[in-house]
Amino acid sequence: MRVFVTGASGWIGSAATTELLARGHEVVGLARSDAAAARIAELGAEVRRGSIDDPAGLRDGAAAADAVVHLAYNHDFSRMADAARTDSQAIEAFGEVLAGTDRPLLIASGVAGLASGTVATEDDRPAHDGHPRLVNAAAALALAERGVRSCVVRFAPTVHGAGDYGFVPVLVATARAKGVSAYVGDGTNVWPAVHRSDAGRLVALATESAPAGSIVHAVAEQGIATRAIAETIGRGLGVPVTSVPAEEAGAHFDWMGQFFAADLATSSELTRARFGWRPTGPGLLADLEQGHYFAAPPS
């Protein structure tokens, strides 16, 4: 297939691009900057200059492809509404082109907000009054009724590996700055995780074979206790580990507090059974133990 990938130069997108190419597909990566274009070309993919806030350009890219993998997203938490709006417009643009073709459209989402007090599964359909990105996921799934082979990949909050610039590096930076590695409350709340290489492979598998209107979970570990994460960070930095009361999480972690206090146990049993996906990368704690998260930041 000829696969049009947004976010192809990003953390997950570059892994997915590498996997798609290895499986014999052609990849056209969307690049909004010279640096992104260079990265995509370095991976061995074709470069298409443009941006996710240009619906006309996205329609043209989708029209020239056999499949669309939409992984680009603006994760600026100070502009969540704007980011969700741009994402919605992109999904709508792709839907206009792919309607009636039965061609794949895969989009990225997350596991937050799926369930409370239980283990979330691929069959969970959360209410749409939470994060606006949930609305976009529902819109993508609804495209199945219009003849699009749509699929939503819900990623674990921690897609880890060497070079990670997501949530875990923020926790490490906070611990380094505060001189203490903290968790919230008793630290028994859990975070699911997946290694970047396993996430990239699942994107490729789902692009090839996910049925219309399907959801897959890019989750290798159902949940790691946040206290264990904090303890491993503490050892890596050589700083004490302590608990922070829930009401003080925002003050200690800033915006990260609400995420690190969340309990997000998530299963991927159905994904593994349906697609034969078997994660092989190291777990989050083992990855932390390798030390690359604790390299001194550039001065």
From TrEMBL:
<dbReference type="InterPro" id="IPR001509">
    <property type="entry name" value="Epimerase_deHydtase"/>
</dbReference>
<dbReference type="InterPro" id="IPR036291">
    <property type="entry name" value="NAD(P)-bd_dom_sf"/>
</dbReference>
<dbReference type="GO" id="GO:0004029">
    <property type="term" value="F:aldehyde dehydrogenase (NAD+) activity"/>
</dbReference>
<dbReference type="GO" id="GO:0005737">
    <property type="term" value="C:cytoplasm"/>
</dbReference>
<feature type="domain" description="NAD-dependent epimerase/dehydratase">
    <location>
        <begin position="3"/>
        <end position="209"/>
    </location>
</feature>
<protein>
    <submittedName>
        <fullName>Nucleoside-diphosphate-sugar epimerase</fullName>
    </submittedName>
</protein>
<dbReference type="InterPro" id="IPR051783">
    <property type="entry name" value="NAD(P)-dependent_oxidoreduct"/>
</dbReference>
<dbReference type="Pfam" id="PF01370">
    <property type="entry name" value="Epimerase"/>
</dbReference>
